[in-house]
Design brief:
alpha+beta; about 140 residues
Amino acid sequence: MNDAQHTALGFYAEALAERLLLRDWEVSVYRDPPYSDHAYASAELLDSQDKVIVRLCQEFFGHSPEKQREWMTHELIHAHLARLQDVLDQLKDQFPDNAAIVFAKQTHHLALEVVAQKMARILAPTLPLPDLPPGVHY
């Protein structure tokens, strides 16, 4: 991601956050790739600070603007779901060796991913497409 793309994506993420009623959240797009090798994008939530950090893989730029919008929307929706995940994170911190809690946390995380994706598919078409600078091929 070059400087112009990085700047454009930062403004785009902020514009989407505004429309998704995340006005109080600080939204940043980092240049480093997602933590998972299998994700086009990821969100790191610093819930106590109302901050979301979006990371995009290089392959993100090879997809259509519609897919990019959907994935960015998906990551930002995680900010609305953050407190739901925090509950199980705190429970696991209290009982780190409890197999039932570990299982519940993993299952809950997958369920939140499904919810975020379904919400993104509903909401993304109502949001603006990214307007990225030249050098990005779809």
